[in-house]
Amino acid sequence: MKKPLQSITLILAAIAFALIPVSCTDDEHDHDHDHDHAHADGHDHAHAEGEEHDHGHEHGGIEDGPNGGRLLTTVEPHLEFFVTDDRKVQITSIDEEEKAQPIGEQVVKVIGGSRSNPIRLSFAKQGDVLMSDIAFPEGNDFPVVVQIKNTADGETVTEKFNLNLVQCPECPNKEYACTCDHEH
What we know:
Elements: H1 2-18, E1 35-38, E2 44-47, E3 70-72, E4 78-83, E5 89-94, E6 100-101, E7 106-112, E8 119-126, E9 129-132, E10 141-150, E11 156-164
Antiparallel strand pairs: 1-2, 3-4, 4-5, 5-6, 5-9, 7-8, 7-10, 8-9, 10-11
């Protein structure tokens, strides 16, 4: 009975990761442009045959936190998702003045890495922040799913984004937290 349950779990994990939007590069983008095209930024773009197709994008809506991480604004208080130099994830609670404050009673889980072999990170309080139990594996660009449960009301919020750990050439942040308006 264990084998079918494992298979079902793997299939569900694969479906969940398949639904995470990923951006495409010009090399990976070889098809007819006479259609609507949904980008990872969530905007649909219509392209006519022969029309110039610019893969640069704006980071519309991405905000960075005081540590240089990505601000998760779908929860209150906002949380900063920051990947440390040792590839662990630090979650910091951010107040209305965009200053770090002691973490509340949130429970955070992160799934990321290879879609065929995802890594699951759990978090424990370390001082005023939450720190992941393990680090992300090698690689600089992969999807992540962040689940944040507020223990006060039991509500769970899910954030999905591509974790690009390449340094932005124009600002001090990594690309996953970059707020610059430039091509990638």
